[in-house]
């Protein structure tokens, strides 16, 4: 294999780090792969670190010692996040997204990788300092959003079911009041899915009254888990009625939605 030039090597190092976010990579791996000394790799990494800082795409952490190395922590630049949420709020404010019954159609966006990845980075940046152990969501539309957040944080994800599944084994189930339907429903989680006393980050796509989030919080107490954060993409704020949970973070607010007039307004609420 022909020896790489420094610029080519730096590009390759950047690609390796970005493909494995939050994963500790020893310097020896780079040295062996590119056939060069660790001291040379260290110099390359200094330049790569600077490029990440300047681009606002994250930063590199260095872990010293025999078992140390470097890991890439993905982030999103504040201005980029602000612009992204502004564009997303405009998309969601389109009157064509109003459904019969006064619902806001978001499914297409919640399954679009180009939308999901920035949202995952925004949530990760907001909750990283809470040091969660696991990201938890409830099926179904919140799953993609929780998954990209878990990836950005380098954490596993757990999905709460809205009913018992035989394939899940022994489960813990509770009843809760759904904010959208005001009906009593059941959520359950396999005892094998979550170890006791974990630090949990809850991520969901929409909050109306907060009944689902409250139900998840109550379910987590059955696992002696500590809910360190709750993040939702959109919260309904068409009235001043308080939510059933406090201390949550919403990225967008639904201020107005009228099926008959076609008026809808979604605005960003996260400031940078």
Automatic annotation (TrEMBL):
It holds the Pfam family PuR_N. Keywords: DNA-binding, Transcription, Transcription regulation. GO terms for molecular function: DNA binding. Residues 129-243 form the Phosphoribosyltransferase domain. CDD domains: PRTases_typeI. Signal peptide: none annotated. It comes from the Bacteria. GO terms for biological process: negative regulation of DNA-templated transcription; negative regulation of purine nucleobase metabolic process. InterPro entries: PRTase-like (IPR029057), PRTase_dom (IPR000836), Pur/Pyrimidine_PRTase (IPR050118), PuR_N (IPR015265), PurR_Bsub (IPR010078), WH-like_DNA-bd_sf (IPR036388), WH_DNA-bd_sf (IPR036390). Residues 5-74 form the Bacterial purine repressor N-terminal domain. Belongs to the purine/pyrimidine phosphoribosyltransferase family. PurR subfamily. NCBIfam families: purR_Bsub. Homodimer. This is Pur operon repressor. The gene is purR.
